[in-house]
Amino acid sequence: MAKVPPRNPKYSAVDLWPPGSKGNVDFPPAAFFPVYLGNFLCQQQGELVSRVQQYFAAKGLLARMVFVRSAQNDAFRNYQDRTKLYDCLVYFTRELDALDAVKYLHRDKYHGHRLNIFPGRERLYFESDKTVDVRQLPGVTENASTESFEDKLVKITAERVVCCARNSPQRVLVEFGDHEKMMQAVEIANQDKLYLARIPTDVWKQRFIEQDVEGEIRCAKIDQHLPNILLQRALYEGRVIDVTDRTVYKPTRRAVVGDLHYVREAMRHMRELAKERQLDVKFQLLMFPDSRKQLLSIARAVRGDQKAEAFLQTYRAPWQVIKNDLILVEEQHVVLHNDVMQYMRQLVENIKRP
């Protein structure tokens, strides 16, 4: 299994928002460093972002955010949804992290599939003098994974493959170490009537890079999607995360009762702060009608509940949707809300997973 050298210095909460990523900036992802990740297996597409972040956390890298193209914008998604093999852009907060991801993790195996990891802003190419187009092999179905094509081809030709990717449903590209090795593979394969086709021109290795999908990224607002709290904490402490561990929290009855206790405590604290600051509790709950749900989600997210984490990252209170400018009293209630949420997080920070 591929390994990445330990990070020095270790991560901290500061890494979540590097300079130029917050405030009135034109394109927040520009402050981060992306890589293209391909051939990533995920059985539930809705878990793709968290699974990608967990994979990199297991390697000691903080994958700050992940961009996945939508089915509306990407016809290839239909094939990916069938095979459960996806691609995406993964953004890191440090340039060295992106460089090391490409250097150490390209071709790493994840659940039996070799990953393709390339730069996210620089186009790389399958070179025509080293690459063949493999459309069909005996015993390998058309929709089979690239591993099936690669392993079969290596078995027949005995030549080592340096890269293999499917950039369209009908096309698998296989790159050898040099022109001579490619020609030897073609000659051997053709003797078995496999007829590998040389590509006439260089072909992109990445299906897309950042500049190709910048408009889609702007709409997705991926800078708001923070990694799971458990992953953050482990990375801050320099601990290794198990790549196969399902961090979805399944609460026991005892845990649920405990969580509700913390919610009640946080609401009590909110009333105390409101009284101290001469603010109206009823108005507070009108501005934040889902406060209790947010508080409960914080407790569950700390335990590793990915649905709770997703709710916290995507939830917008009604006033956030319909208003642009706040009057002073509204701003004071927003500060109160944020203080209560932070208080809740501090309360449950030491809760252990059951």
The count of β-strands is 12
How helix-rich are the residues, as a percent range?
40-55%
* Radius of gyration, taken over Cα atoms and rounded to an integer in Å: 24 Å
Q: How is the CATH topology of the largest domain named? A: Alpha-Beta Plaits
Question: How would you describe this structure to a colleague?
Answer:
There is one protein chain. The protein has 354 residues and is of the alpha+beta class. 42% of the residues lie in helices and 15% in strands. Strands 2-3-1-6 form a four-stranded antiparallel β-sheet. It has a four-stranded antiparallel β-sheet with strand order 9-10-8-11. Helix 8 (253-276) packs antiparallel against helix 13 and helix 10 (291-303) crosses helix 11 (306-314). The radius of gyration is 24 Å and the shape is elongated. The two termini are 29 Å apart.
